Each structure stands twice: as C-alpha cells, then as structure tokens.
What we know:
3 helices, 17% strand
Amino acid sequence: MIFRTTFLFSLILAMAVSGNNLFAQTSENKVLPVVNFYYPKNAYRIKVSEEIQTYIDKLKSRIEGDDAASIKLIGFAYDGSNKEWNTRVSKYRVRALRDILIANGISKNRIEIEYLGKSKPIAKDNSAKELAKNRRVELRIEA
C-alpha cells in the first residue's frame, strides 16, 4: 500500500546508520541502529517520498518477521527558547510518522512514542546547520 499525502512540507530522510545492515535479525533483545528523520523548521507534516516508502516497506517486513520486534519513535524539536512549542511540535512530528507507519500496515501495538521537545539536543553549536539536527524523529527498532 502506498500512502501519499499533500501536506505542505516534505520530510527529509537521513539514514544516520552506524552498522552494516539496518534490517538484520538480532538476538537477545539488541537494539538496531537508529534512523533519523529530519524536518524543516516548525514543520511536522510529511510527504512520503519514494525513498521513504521503500524504507517503510523494508521496515514492515523486518517487524513482521520477528514477534519480539517493536518500533520506538522519539520526537525532538528546537526553535528558540519556547519550551511549550518545542514539546508540541515534537509530539506532532512523532504522531505524523506513527500515523504513516500505521497506514502502511504496521500495527500501532508495536509502536511506542515519546516526545522530548528541545531536551537532549545533538547540535554541537548554535549555527543554523547544527540546530537543524535537533529537529528530528528518531526511529529505533528494538528486537
């Protein structure tokens, strides 16, 4: 099933993977590498590109093949000092990605969400390029 949307913003997919095979089977409750979905400033609605659809299809196959596997989505944001807004936009980002995964056949019972706003930044400095790294949803496959 291909999920398409006409939302205003497109999602920038960056697979920050530090391992050989993202979809490899694991044993003994290992966590697979994290994939980061980066967003433009103040954006949370996404358009599913062909690259993202391919990733979701592979993710679904990986999850279906392992009863113990689950997905954890963790949302982050950074837009100035407004803590309430950052928390809200990180929640919207996580929910938007969760809804796309569900629409593509991944059971919502296998998806855990968390939104942290501007806590736990990964930017190394306050440059625009670095701060953009904080606007993301981390997708973790736990097996």
